[in-house]
């Protein structure tokens, strides 16, 4: 008898019990009782279904005892409509979702039904994906405050030492396809083509309308066909993108001309802030803006116009944003972060240095790779009195660092030459070698555990808020590993400010519900 015949002939016996199945086991073997249809005598408590050190419990404790949620409640100012979900619950589910990589609204909705940890945080409530989407977009501004609150908790727990901090950037993909972008030259070609097609379709539509009016009288039929509306939309999108590229080119040309005129005045020994020079600069800027034309290869994406084509680490080009992060060496806590549509890294250093000082204080040493070198950045570190270590060039793979030249530094040495000499010393090499193990692993952790390499929200403000949420969640994960060092919950942290309109309305609605439940007739009396 063949194998296939055996599989067909050996069939399950209808109505076979567990005892019958156990007869094939060893004689006298006893199994634990298993009754799938057994109803629970008492209602279960989800609190007993999670281990004591589960990450969901940490998120619950953090939101309940340590975070100030007044900005979330203050956003609910309308007293009408169906009561929304409590922001505490929504924030817990959202934070835990990002911690575990479940970011999309539909995945969160499914998790609140299928996964115990999510049901524990949601208290058995199951918001739909629209509720999560609306909550995330409604509270974008409050997400920035969460980053600072969590960073403050990390600092109180002794996780921020400010010895070495490292700055690095990574390209995160926008929620847009590079195939939905069009260059300025292609827009100039495509616009007249679509305009001619739309004109032809409009003429055909008018002829059809006239024939239908004659046939049907006053009956409706004046809506434009779907294919016509689509092509009209494409034409309008192309014209809008062209206008944005032209405006962007004009702004760049004006700024360049203004700066050039100021440099000329400085070289001539004139005051660049005098009224005459300012007027001359503005005139030059206006002339340059009038003549400016976008480069033929300048592109604009129709799905997320704020994103830009950038080269990623694998050598390919995609619609991306440039995410920046300053990381403390002690526990890889992000102390400053940002996101922009500018591919170059160097322009971001001054703002991130200032943000670091504002958020946590003055770092002792500031490390960055060659992409951040510029004389202006070197001067910014010097003005802040921070010891900077910025590479001035890139070395080939396995290329040894040249030895530092002996003797005194020449008086006429440029800032770049001085920095290169500093990094070649024994101390400089040892300090700069720490850079690659400070910020770079953070991006790897975020992209692997949180799926942070692909953003979901579109538009610069929304994308930046989502990246801030990713940075907050990363710091939460680091804080969870040191929860024993977390300070005691402060007294009086407002979870739902009773003095606010939202808090009073919530209290009133809850009181009315309890009163209605108490006055409702029982089924026996109804």
What would your notes on this structure say?
The protein has helices spanning 3-9, 18-21, 55-65, 70-74, 87-100, 105-114, 116-122, 129-138, 140-156, 184-216, 226-267, 275-291, 349-359, 375-383, 415-424, 426-432, 440-449, 460-480, 501-519; strands at 164-173, 181-183, 299-301, 308-311, 317-328, 334-340, 365-368, 387-390. It has 526 residues and is of the alpha/beta class. The strands form two sheets. Strands 1, 4, 5, 6, 7 and 8 form a six-stranded mixed beta sheet that branches. The chain has a two-stranded antiparallel ribbon with strand order 2-3. The chain is built from 19 helices and eight strands. Helix 3 (55-65) runs parallel beside helix 7 and helix 6 (105-114) crosses helix 7 (116-122). It is globular and about 100 Å long. The model is unreliable at 1-13, 496-506 and 522-526 (pLDDT under 50).
Arithmetic mean pLDDT: 78
| Cα radius of gyration in angstroms | 32 Å
Largest sheet: 6 strands, mixed
C-alpha end-to-end distance? 70 Å
Summarize the amount of helix as a percent range: 40-55%
Number of strands: 8
Poorly predicted runs: 1-13, 496-506, 522-526
The helix/strand order is: HHHHHHHHHEEHHHEEEEHEHEHHHHH
Task: Note the quaternary state here.
Answer: single chain
- Which percent band covers the strand fraction? 5-15%
